[in-house]
Amino acid sequence: MKPRDRLRIAMQKSGRLTEPALDLLNRCGLTFRQSRDKLFCFGEGEPVDLLLVRDDDIPGLIAQGVCELGIVGRNVLNEFKGGAGNGAAALTEWRSLGFGRCRLSVAVPQEMDYNEPKDLAGLRIATSYPGLLGIWLREQGVDASVITLAGSVEIAPKLGTADVICDLVQSGGTLVANQLRETDVLLQSEAVLAGPETLPTDERGDMVELLLKRLDGVIQVRE
Ligand code: PRT
Ligand code: ZN
Asked: Which domains are seen in the chain, by residue range?
């Protein structure tokens, strides 16, 4: 099979990162013709196409070489890198993009007596980030059981399926609404431009370099 000569960037199809990501690419001079199935967008000027996918799939698509770059939350990227079986995937942050800011935090019921991570010993912690939570618990020397949930993590303590949670927080409104209190920040996150540590040595690599240069200009103007 002939190697691809067009660059592919994966981004979230529909969610918090979609609009700011597309806006950033537009400001880097990239425009796209929306295809009918809306999974693949053909780039009009430069040889750069878009893949519109679930954010969780982005690191895997880069690791498999389906695309060269992805715009994804650091939380998703690091969970992939730290997750079981993904150790070999040498993915890196080429740039941090300044939007989609949030943090991954532990939160406990407001009435719970909590002073330090050791107080989590023996508890059940609900999260969608078992890899990152597991690493943090090991660093803290805490033995707790991690309960992996795909969503609605914040209601787990009320439902009795977990004692505390580890979830993304932005304004803190969701925690307050669920009578939870943020105690420890595991990760400060924002959208990043992710890619393999080693770029292709062909035209696609040149295009990445051009894009990074434009991106730096756009980010500087914005700051
Ligand atoms: O369908 P797909 O899988 O692509 O979308 P998704 O539902 O997984 O992702 P989406 O669109 O919700 O979030 C995409 C990315 O945005 C995340 O991976 C983060 O990097 C980033 N981001 C920024 C956030 C938030 N802020 C955020 N507040 N992601 C989620 N939240 C949720 C959080 O999980 C919690 O339920 O918002 C709630 C907390 O918000 P506050 O303001 O009440 O604290
Ligand atoms: Zn997702």
From this structure: 7-100+191-222 (3.40.190.10), 102-189 (3.40.190.10)
